[in-house]
Amino acid sequence: DLLTGIGIAYWYMDDGNWHPDNYTFATDCFTKEDVQKLQFVLLDKYGIKSTSNNQRNRIQIPKGQKNFLPLVEPYILEEFKYKIREKK
Q1: Whole-number Å distance between alpha carbons of 76 and 72
Q2: Which of 1, 54, 63, 66 is at a distance of 20 to 30 A from 8, taking alpha carbons?
Q3: Which backbone phi and psi does 34 adopt, to 5 degrees?
Q4: What is d(CA 8, CA 31) in angstroms, rounded to the nearest whole number?
Q5: How far apart are CA 61 and CA 84, in angstroms?
Q6: How far apart are CA 71 and CA 4, in angstroms?
Q7: pTM score, whole prediction
Q8: Contact predicate 72/12, CB 8 Å
Q9: CA dihedral 12, 63, 1, 15 (to 10 degrees)
Q10: Averaged in consecutive runs of 10 residues, what is the pLDDT profile of the chain (88 residues)?
């Protein structure tokens, strides 16, 4: 219940990054079990499928996930819009 759309947006603005194929959360310091719990909540509560990078333990949300941007975009501050826009 604590992981809301606004919470995910703020988390992404702080620890998120745009990549050509995905949106990434820097969860390097999280345990593997905690990363799996977060992935389960994203899927169960929001229908957002994600993977984790085994080397860095980062959560990656593929660009094709239609639920991610509508969930976070309303809360992304203007200064952080570059983290959700396609780079040209």
Answers
A1: 6
A2: 54
A3: -65, -40
A4: 18
A5: 12
A6: 9
A7: 0.86
A8: yes
A9: -20
A10: 91 92 91 93 95 86 91 94 74
